[in-house]
Write a structure and sequence with these properties.
Largest sheet: 7 strands, parallel
Helix content: 25-40%
Strand order of the largest sheet: 3-2-4-1-5-6-7
Number of helices: 11
Radius of gyration: 24 Å
CATH architecture of the domain at 53-227: 3-Layer(aba) Sandwich
CATH superfamily of the domain at 53-227: P-loop containing nucleotide triphosphate hydrolases
Oligomer: single chain
Strand content: 5-15%
Length: 307
């Protein structure tokens, strides 16, 4: 979708980490925008433990496949559901996520251990954390996740990682998806996003062994439609989210309607994957009903003429 041009510089020369406090719920709302809210529905409970928080990580190494665009629109969905969240961006050069969501926090990858500690700390304060990982770091991502989050002993994790895989009609993204799935297995949840930006089909992925493995691991697949080029130009020029643009009366009415249609369809796709995107709630076992006491009084005799 958006041409993020994820940096491939492996040196990770980054600015200092931000020490600003966590933004409050809804802090990512664009100035002056008013998104119509709707009440959140019951969240699907995952069968893999009573995890209560979500760590979402975009994990496709190839640049320009729509990782940032997906997360920008995911933020709009969270705001509509009144779901507090914190987003991290690790790209100091082409930080598309930070450009659209200025309250995103920078995650410095020069010290992987400190980065993991920061994510842990934020997860203690917020139920949903998402990370727009730097493309050049993602070949090391499975090992880093394994060492920093998935290999802990003792009490189970208080959060569940969801790996977001952006898929296009090319072999690179499909191969990367298969390799990541092979290395992490069922220790995480898998969300596959079929991005139709350049092609209306995903036949390479649909017929791949990577897909067979992901489905075996319980992956959920959703589709992200292509934004018309004229609307994409408006999004890039203004650096504003769709929830802000659809309320901007300075834009032509038909243009706003087309943006609203794209957002509605995108939200419908997210609804099918809400169990992998929102915090999970423990299943409450209802208490069995208390039987009414049986009266021990003798049954009254009925006269034959009354029968």
């Amino acid at each position: 979708m958006l041409n993020t041009n994820d940096s491939d510089d492996a040196s990770f020369s980054q600015p200092a980490q931000s020490s600003s406090p966590l933004p409050a719920a809804g802090a990512f709302r664009a100035s002056g925008s008013k998104v119509k809210r709707r009440p959140a529905q019951n969240i699907m409970t995952l069968p893999k433990g009573n995890t209560s928080r979500r760590l979402l990580i975009s994990a496709t190494s190839k640049g320009g496949v729509g990782k940032s665009f997906f997360l920008i629109n995911l933020a709009d969905w969270f705001i509509e559901l009144e779901q507090p969240f914190v987003f991290f961006d690790s790209d100091s050069c082409n930080g598309t996520l930070t450009r659209f969501l200025p309250d995103s926090r920078f995650l410095n990858l020069q010290n992987p251990g400190e980065a993991a500690k920061e994510i842990h700390a934020v997860l203690e304060e917020c139920e949903v954390v998402a990370w727009d990982a730097l493309g050049s770091s993602q070949q090391y991502l499975p090992d880093w996740l394994d060492q920093s989050f998935l290999s802990e002993e003792g009490e189970p994790l208080s959060f569940r990682p969801t790996i977001i895989l952006m898929i296009e009609e090319d072999k690179d993204t499909v191969f990367q998806a298969g390799e990541t799935a092979r290395r992490l297995g069922d220790r995480v949840d898998w969300l596959v996003v079929k991005n139709l930006k350049t092609c209306s089909t995903t036949e390479i992925y649909d017929n791949s062994k990577a897909r067979q493995e992901l489905l075996r691991l319980g992956a959920i697949e959703i589709t992200m439609e292509r934004v018309p080029w004229s609307l994409l130009a408006t999004i890039q020029r203004t650096s504003r989210t769709l929830s802000s643009l659809v309320l901007d009366e300075s834009l032509p009415f038909l243009e706003r309607q087309r943006l609203r249609t794209f957002q509605r369809r995108f939200f419908e796709q997210l609804e099918t994957a809400r169990g992998f995107l929102l915090p999970t709630k423990p299943v409450e076992t209802p208490e069995p009903p208390v039987p009414e006491p049986v009266s021990s009084a003798p049954r009254p005799r009925v006269a034959p003429e009354e029968v």
